[in-house]
Design a protein that fits this description.
single chain; about 350 residues; alpha/beta; 7-stranded mixed sheet; 5-stranded mixed sheet; 12 strands; about 35% helix
Length: about 350
């Protein structure tokens, strides 16, 4: 594998229909943040990766579907800040995906080191395609997935799961139709993208790896592009390196709720109100609210510094402390970008996201 590099073709397909006008600024910010993520990866993983970017926008009007590659397979080092985004018209979603995938496939199909990372953002149902049907698109996507292509879909204001099931796309986020939802979905996307690049870097840095092994790992990386980030309602056991994160009282009297579970099953220490203890981590939720916020910040810093551990955050502050998820979740927003932190479904909802 010496001197081998993955040729990573990043394809972003973005809805530019009229309803996206409410999300124009947040969408632009998200696209440019993702461009920066790719640019940083190119610099960091220069010995194992070569990155290009294609950006396709789509809408429709009286003249029919308007699907355009505003950035077309450019080396990421040459890509400038994206500014030309003016939402209007309808949603030719299938034509946009079909055009983008077929164009990229024809461009890279002879490149044995090619890998495609495809991201789709839309806030509406298909309503104006003329060239591609859902059945044809699904068959094409399944063919590309078999070749190691990665697909992620970020959707809002429609039945996202139904659409992605029809398209055979497994990595899915539904976001609330506001700036908060869009901001957080792009942050989540960038963190997943970064994790994917790290896996590719490790693989292409190995010696004596066969082409078949590379392909199988590509498929696995693609399936796991959006890692599991929702804490189960009930946690009965922990896998290796998993940490049970629970709300405690400041005195560390773990005698109820998740604290009691942590005490009985996961090594929580009686009398320790905060921090790592066994396979658990305590965040004190009693006393002044500001003290809890500071403890949450200390936990986030700890999670950042321990990427080898996976933290399962329970409904911190929503039990005996008496707070609502909407009050607590915003203080965990920095966790959106941490691939090693899972949050309760209620917290994700409060942050404008729904994971499948």
């Amino acid at each position: 594998m010496e001197n081998k590099k993955a040729h990573i073709y990043n394809l972003i397909i973005v809805d530019e229909s009229g309803s996206m006008s409410y999300l124009e600024k947040a969408t632009l910010n998200g696209i440019n943040s993702t461009i920066n993520t790719i640019r940083k990866a190119q610099k960091e993983f220069v010995n194992t990766q070569v990155h290009t970017l294609s950006l396709v926008t789509f809408s429709s009007g009286s003249g029919g579907a308007k699907v355009q590659a505003v950035i077309n397979n450019e080396p990421i080092s040459q890509v400038k800040t994206f500014k030309d985004y003016t939402p209007n018209g309808g949603t030719p979603l299938y034509d946009a995906i079909g055009f983008s995938l077929s164009t990229l496939y024809n461009y890279i199909k002879a490149d044995k080191d090619a890998t495609a990372v495809v991201t789709i953002l839309t806030d509406g149902l298909e309503n104006s395609s003329t060239d591609w049907t859902v059945d044809a698109l699904r068959s094409f996507i399944e063919k590309l997935k078999a070749e190691g292509w990665s697909f992620s879909y970020m959707g809002s204001d429609h039945d996202v799961k139904q659409v992605t099931d029809l398209l055979s796309i497994d990595n899915v986020i539904e976001f609330s139709h506001n700036d908060t939802g869009v901001d957080h979905t792009w942050v989540r996307e960038s963190s997943s993208r970064r994790a994917y690049y790290e896996k590719m870097n490790t693989m292409y840095g190995e010696d004596n790896i066969t082409a078949d092994e590379i392909m199988e790992r590509k498929r696995n990386f693609a399936r796991e592009y959006y890692g599991a980030r929702v804490t189960p309602d009930r946690i009965r056991h922990l896998n290796e390196n998993e940490i049970f994160v629970f709300g405690s009282n400041s005195a560390g009297f773990h005698n109820g709720g998740a604290a009691q579970v942590a005490m009985i099953k996961f090594g929580a220490v009686w009398g320790q109100g905060e921090g790592l203890q066994g396979n658990s981590y305590a965040i004190p939720t009693t006393g002044f609210f500001e003290n809890m916020v500071q403890a949450i910040n200390r936990f986030i810093d700890f999670a950042m510094r321990n990427p080898q551990k996976r933290f399962l955050v329970t409904r911190i502050g929503c039990g005996n402390a008496g707070y609502m998820a909407e009050q607590i979740a915003p203080y965990f927003k920095e966790c959106v970008k941490l691939e090693n932190v899972a949050l309760p479904a209620e917290f994700w909802t409060a942050l404008g996201l729904r994971m499948f």
